[in-house]
Amino acid sequence: MRVSETNSRLLYQTMKACGIQVVSALPESWLVPVIRMIGEDREMRLIRVAKEEEGVGISAGAHFAGKKSAIVIPNHGFLAAVNPIVSLAHLYKVPLMMFIAYRGTFGDTYPWHTPGGTVTEPLLQALRVPYTFLDSPGSLERRVRGAQDLAAASLLPVALLLKHELMMEA
Amino acid sequence: MKRIECLRAVYPQLEKRVVVTIMGAVAIELQSIGHRENFFYLQHAMGLASSIGLGLAVSLPEETIVVFDGDGSLLMNLGTLSTLALSGAGNIVHVVFDNQNYLSAGGSPTATSQRANLEGVARASGIARTSSARSVEEFQTEFISALDSDRLTVLVAHVDTSGPSDWLTDLGLLENRFQFARYCQSLAKR
Q1: Residue B176's domain is classified under what CATH number?
Q2: Domain segments of chain A as ranges
Q3: How many domains does chain B contain in total?
Q4: Which of A66, A98, A140, B3 would be a feasible disulfide site paired with B159, CB 3.0-4.6 Å?
Q5: What is the pLDDT of residue B165?
Q6: What is the gyration radius of the CA atoms in chain A, in angstroms?
Q7: How many Cβ atoms sit within 10 Å of the Cβ of residue B55?
Q8: How many Cβ atoms sit within 10 Å of the Cβ of residue A17?
Q9: How far is CA A3 from the centre of its chain?
Q10: What is the mean pLDDT of residues A5-32?
């Protein structure tokens, strides 16, 4: 199975249409095309981080300056960013937009992703981070805008879980 | 040299800068000299002051962002140095107050008390402009030179392991955050 270029492009176009200008990213295979597309767009600012928690800080800085931003990471990267979600985004009320590749769930054939797959949603719930799924092209923009609206209204982190159905070709 | 002497020596240069500090001694000492609306004190999330600085730097390209970091905080997020270098952002002066100790977290030695050399790590991470200071005069000179350079700079200040006696002030965290964001957004609209 291959990563869907078509849906990766749609995801990138949706992020741009939603006014996201600063994107911190750490790739994994599902995210390589969308990160490449963001990096090629001169109107967006891609920051390639070494560890996912940096993205929480970068988004906080961008938000303080009035820019819309996002973090594009796999779910194991979300696990690595838990402390700053609590000790920066929650403490200082930062409306963080996290696009998280939801690895290790139905359809994933790689054993090493499966532990992360089973704990992602329980952990989001434990952190009181609202989340929804990006699983089909038709609902993409509405769900991203809905997440932005909730993040802005609550001044809290929200998560969009990128599912296998969206990211991989059938 | 003492950290607060360094902060005093460059305080006039901070008037129109976007400033991010780490928690603990740096935050308390800068506030004791005089809080300004353009100062943000990251009172937790150790390691991320420079990441916030980078988010500010790419969002406010006309401004110079000053980050006051520490050895313990930077050691928790060494990847920030290669990220800063890779980003190409030139408008960040990243000061690291190295007191060789997790002073604000109870007091115990960090790796810089032995062999770790943060200026060396910064340089090896791809940051071309680095310097260090062991006297207040040297620090002031290097800081002003960094501001004037329009280049990403890491300046390591070797300071004493001493700090304030109390860690709280009457400035609310969210008060600081919203005031600072308003200041930054007024710059963005200029």
Answers
A1: 3.40.50.970
A2: 5-167
A3: 1
A4: B3
A5: 86
A6: 14
A7: 32
A8: 12
A9: 16
A10: 97
CA–CA dist A148, A68 (Å, integer): 9
**B49 contact residues in A (CB cutoff 8 A):** 57
- E-only strand ranges, chain A: 22-25, 45-48, 69-74, 97-101, 131-134, 158-162
Superfamily of segment(s) A5-167: Thiamin diphosphate (ThDP)-binding fold, Pyr/PP domains (3.40.50.970)
A111-127 burial, b at 16+ Cβ within 10 Å, e below that, comes to eebeebbeebbebbeeb
pLDDT at residue A98 in the model: 98
B55, B173, B184 member nearest A22 (Cβ) = B55
Distance between B57 CA and the closest CA of chain A, angstroms: 8
Nearest neighbour of A91 by CB, restricted to B44, B50, B54: B44
Q: What confidence tens digit (pLDDT) does each residue in B134-165 have? A: 999 999 999 999 999 999 999 999 999 998 98
Q: What residue in B sits closest to A86 (Cα-Cα)? A: B45
Question: Which among B45, B50, B56 has CB closest to A65?
Answer: B56
Tell me: pLDDT of B43 over 90: yes
Q: Where are the beta strands (DSSP E) in chain B?
A: 18-21, 39-41, 65-70, 92-98, 129-133, 153-158
* Residue B190 pLDDT exceeds 90: no
